[in-house]
């Protein structure tokens, strides 16, 4: 009930705060979308007509209320520049971004958690130092630079991967994977590096516990200690960091999709901001806010499976 109550309380507050802030910033930005849409040779009457058609002649709060009331029924409005329903426009761009994000999350989890655990087998050893250097480099290197480096090596030099574009999964797993792997790796490097550092710290903290030392003294194999005791006890901070990084990873798709020429939500966001397409921007923001809320909910629910005592302490 605690998790459900938190979701019920925070969801409308976060949704209103995020969408209202974006709406206010776009309204305060210089320029007039009606002028751009009316054309270079438009008269004042043409601009006024376009402004009336878009509802831009209404007061600020009325315009936001009209959008909000429609959004709550599933209608996100019509794109200013494309004259297409925003829900259809977002739906047409959703698969590339979703594919990129899911593959990047899988890579980040496998690399981050795997390297973090391996580094704790011999703390201060060669592998631990290598993981530390790799993690520091992964955090420091910009994602767009990593993406361009991957394109230069694998697409231009080795010619083993395509440099740009996206192929839908319906056209085959192999071509889909060939177009997704490089951008997903570029997107996953930073969260994987941060996840490796947090995993290492959490696991080392658990390894110093008395029950772990007792298990080692009894001669229990290391792999069994890790699987039965360490991973579960270190799971909560790892899952918490993972939830935060997944939310940040979604923002990274804007840069990576631009580098690799993928027509997803990231490039749609940039085009909409440059074109002052307010309904499209608000639709993307509303979707992003919903995704973040779902991720936070899944993180909270995962605590019940990792360590039910944590839920009991929170409820108390």
Describe the protein:
This protein has 316 residues and is mainly α. It has two domains: 2-71, no CATH class; 91-315, MetI-like fold (Orthogonal Bundle). It has helices spanning 2-28, 33-38, 44-54, 60-71, 86-119, 126-140, 143-157, 173-207, 210-217, 222-233, 235-260, 265-274, 278-306, 308-315. It is globular. Mean pLDDT is 82; it is low at 311-316.
List the helices and strands and how they pair.
Elements: H1 2-28, H2 33-38, H3 44-54, H4 60-71, H5 86-119, H6 126-140, H7 143-157, H8 173-207, H9 210-217, H10 222-233, H11 235-260, H12 265-274, H13 278-306, H14 308-315
Helix pairs in contact: 1-13, 5-6, 5-8, 5-11, 5-13, 6-8, 7-8, 7-11, 8-11, 11-12, 11-13, 12-13, 13-14
- CATH top level of the largest domain is Mainly Alpha
As a percent range, the share of strand residues is under 5%
> What kind of oligomer do you see?
single chain
Could you tell me the number of beta strands?
A: 0
How much helix, percentage-wise, in residues?
over 70%
Instruction: Name the overall outline.
Output: globular
Compute the number of structural domains.
Answer: 2
Order of helices and strands: HHHHHHHHHHHHHH
The CATH topology assignment of the largest domain is: MetI-like fold
Which residues sit in consecutive blocks of at least 5 with pLDDT less than 50? 311-316
Mean pLDDT: 82
Structural class: mainly alpha
CATH architecture of the largest domain: Orthogonal Bundle
**Main sheet specs:** none
Please give the count of helices.
Answer: 14
Global Rg: 24 Å
């Amino acid at each position: 009930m605690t998790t459900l109550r938190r979701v019920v309380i925070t969801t409308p507050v976060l949704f209103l705060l995020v969408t209202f802030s974006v709406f206010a910033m776009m309204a305060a930005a210089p320029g007039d979308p009606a002028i751009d849409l009316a054309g270079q040779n438009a008269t004042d009457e043409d601009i006024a007509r376009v402004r009336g058609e878009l509802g831009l002649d209404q007061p600020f709060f009325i315009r936001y209320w009209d959008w909000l009331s429609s959004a709550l029924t599933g209608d996100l409005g019509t794109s200013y520049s494309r004259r297409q329903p925003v829900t259809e426009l977002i739906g047409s761009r959703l698969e590339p971004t979703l594919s990129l994000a899911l593959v990047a999350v899988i890579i980040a989890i496998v690399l981050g958690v795997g390297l973090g655990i391996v580094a704790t087998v011999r703390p201060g050893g060669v592998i631990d130092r290598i993981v530390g250097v790799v993690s520091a480099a992964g955090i420091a290197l910009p994602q767009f630079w990593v993406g361009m480096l991957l394109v230069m090596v694998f697409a231009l030099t080795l010619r083993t991967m395509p440099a740009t574009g996206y192929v839908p999964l319906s056209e085959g797993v192999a071509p889909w994977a060939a177009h997704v792997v490089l951008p997903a790796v570029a997107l996953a490097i930073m969260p994987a590096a941060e996840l490796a550092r947090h995993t290492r710290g959490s696991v080392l903290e658990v390894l110093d516990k008395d029950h772990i030392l007792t298990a080692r003294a009894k001669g229990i194999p290391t792999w069994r200690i890790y699987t039965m005791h360490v991973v579960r006890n270190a799971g909560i901070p790892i899952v918490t960091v993972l939830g935060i990084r997944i939310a940040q990873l979604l923002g990274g798709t804007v840069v990576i999709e631009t580098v690799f020429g993928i027509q997803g939500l990231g490039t749609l966001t940039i085009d909409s901001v440059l074109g002052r397409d307010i309904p499209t921007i608000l639709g993307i923001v509303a979707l992003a806010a919903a995704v973040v809320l779902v991720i936070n909910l899944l993180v909270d629910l995962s605590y019940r499976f990792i360590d039910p005592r944590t839920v009991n302490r929170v409820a108390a």
